[in-house]
Automatic annotation (TrEMBL):
It comes from Neobacillus ginsengisoli. One of its GO terms (molecular function) is aminocarboxymuconate-semialdehyde decarboxylase activity. Its EC number is 4.1.1.45. Belongs to the metallo-dependent hydrolases superfamily. ACMSD family. PANTHER family: 2-AMINO-3-CARBOXYLMUCONATE-6-SEMIALDEHYDE DECARBOXYLASE, 2-AMINO-3-CARBOXYMUCONATE-6-SEMIALDEHYDE DECARBOXYLASE. Keywords: Decarboxylase, Lyase, Metal-binding, Zinc. The keyword Metal-binding applies. SUPFAM superfamilies: Metallo-dependent hydrolases. Residues 5-330 form the Amidohydrolase-related domain. This is 2-amino-3-carboxymuconate-6-semialdehyde decarboxylase. Pathway: Secondary metabolite metabolism; quinolate metabolism. It holds the Pfam family Amidohydro_2. Monomer. The keyword Zinc applies.
Amino acid sequence: MEMRVDFHTHIIPEDFPDFATKYQNDKWPVLQPTCSCGANIMVAGKVFREVTDQVWSPSMRISDMEKESVDLQVLSPIPVTFSYWAPIEEAAVLARFQNDFIAETVSQHPTKFIGLGTVPMQNVEVAIRELDRCVHELGLKGIEIGTNINGKNLDDESLTDFFVMCEKWNVPIFVHPWETLGRERLSSHNLMYTVGMPSETALAAASLILGGVIEKYPGLKICFAHGGGSLPYILPRLDHGWNVWPHLRQTEKPPSFYAKKFFYDSLVNSPVNIKFLVGKFGAEQVIMGSDYPFLLRETPPGKIIDDTLTLTEAQKRAMLGENALRFLNLPVNQLI
């Protein structure tokens, strides 16, 4: 029996705390209601994103899931709430608040939702402590992190202990773009979403590869949003650079070897790109994800996989649900 698992969905509590007022800092995201069925996420007094009640209402989500034949959603925070820039004491409070909310939502609807947590990555010791709580107390099945930590790439030595513990505890990591590089050039045409995010994701993946993180910690389970961004398409260039600059190498093998160890969500907007992803990494490394409930999401979730005629039924079944459960360390038949 086919199970459809939407791995890439975002959620925010309707009673999201107003830290901008509490801490007198308008860098904090604020959820400002516009009506009973919607709100604006405000940052520094400007609209960062318009959202509907789909983003906080479990009943709305479940209704949409039934309409779109989705069996399970994997819930993760909205990246703007990571707040890695904030004082650690304040960021830790927000992380706990969001993790408690996601865990409670899952506990109320255990056959509909799986939860991923968030941790304050600006302080690895505190991040590990909250990671421990997420996984071992709240029962969340993984963690979502951003593509950089205040401008530090993910291979920065200050982050080593975090990845050590993720490997030790077998915690799946969902890497989502945020605070994209080149933001000063991306203000028009919503280029941050269409160009900045894919580029930012590729930089994060390349850093983990070239910095030797994946080689040192081969047990890490990492999935990249949006099909890995531009990474799959620049891998030959990364390999070429690895070959011509041997003095820069920190890995035994070229980048394309390690890229096959990552997972990638299927949000690539075209069957041609799905075919390319599968050819590059294998169907077993691709996980269906829609970016629900935002405007750039895929509707209905999994449509591009369904429309990729070169896939076998077994490959489609794996990509639409089985791979997500396997990535999250859940039995494929657990919830069928």
